Amino acid sequence: MRSETAASPGRLRDALRGLRLYQEAPRLPPPPPMPVAARVGRVALRDYGGSGPAVIVVPSLINPPSVLDLAEDNSLLRWLAGQGLRPLLLDWESPAPDERDLTIAGHVERYLLPLIAAIGGRPALVGYCLGGTMALAAAARADVSALVLIAAPWRFSGFTEAARTGLADLWRHAEPAATALGVLPMEVLQTSFWQLDPSKTVAKFERLGRGAMPPAAIPGFIALEDWANDGPPLTYAAGRGLIHDFVGADETGRGVWQVGGSPVVAERLACPVLDIVSTTDRIVPAASAAGIGTGLSLGLGHVGMIVGGRARSLLWEPMAEWLRQAIVLPPAPTRKRRSRAKPPTVGPGL
């Protein structure tokens, strides 16, 4: 805040007031967790209902999975349950003290693949952000009916040089503490997200502080900020692998990342794939996508594509329709509602 408002004491005052309002805002108690459909160790699949085929939704290891169920009226998972599908949310929970050496591939092998087997049949997979990277690996090792990737990085060479250098610097400073703790705290990665656009980070608290945010939007702002500033740590090996092996060496994009004893090659997947990217995503640039299967390109941000005002029409609905076609389901019943935007055309390629 000091660096972004150095020339304007008024802006600093507004930003600090907005931060205080955010900190002191009343919070509703969290809803009770959804029932557990299957569990392997610390990791559970939470059942959101629905009577159709199983769709396992894999969130990132970074930040909690709650962005996919942000509010009762803004929940991708609850909405999917009414679309002839049975969404099952993978809840990573917090790593155990003895898991410091568990890599990202290890998470797929130890937890995701056994949970897919526990559900049985041929579930579809939907992976968001780093969860998409892991879901792609799982789809290469398990018999699944379909795979949806949402803002999922695969070709890390598609990140800007500044972003890759910044994350390398971040790891260099954080590694001694991560080595001692056995984990990479989420707060360390959060600093890298702030650095992507410091002015935007401060501006949103300025708007809140000077009363420029519509009152009806404030509860959603609070919920989203709570999500963005929360989350369990990564295991030491997963944190090192993310920054050193993925961002630094692009092991996934070069086809040398090993899961289950052999490299994962995205182009060899046997199941149908929908690869959703955003042209305005500052966290996972579109150039880092796997670029396989059917492509859907949006003009929404990394988080906005999941919970933004146009998320339902631009992402939720095309994705559900694609899943129904990939799994061969009848169309979902239509419901009369106001549409704010026309869904984009889904076509081959990105």
In percent, how much strand structure appears in the residues? 5-15%
What is the subunit arrangement here?
Answer: single chain
Instruction: State the low-pLDDT regions, or none.
Output: 335-350
The CATH homologous superfamily corresponds to Alpha/Beta hydrolase fold, catalytic domain
Q: How would you describe the shape?
A: globular
Tell me what you see in this structure.
The protein has a single domain (31-185, 233-348), classed as Alpha/Beta hydrolase fold, catalytic domain (Rossmann fold, 3-Layer(aba) Sandwich). 39% of the residues are buried. The chain has 350 residues and is of the alpha/beta class. It is built from eleven helices and 13 strands. The chain is globular and about 60 Å long. Strands 1-2-4-3-5-6-11-12-13 form a nine-stranded mixed beta sheet, sandwiched between helices. It has helices spanning 9-24, 76-80, 104-119, 130-139, 161-181, 186-196, 198-209, 218-228, 236-248, 304-307, 311-327, and strands at 36-40, 43-47, 54-58, 86-91, 124-128, 147-150, 183-184, 234-235, 258-259, 262-263, 273-278, 294-298, 347-348.
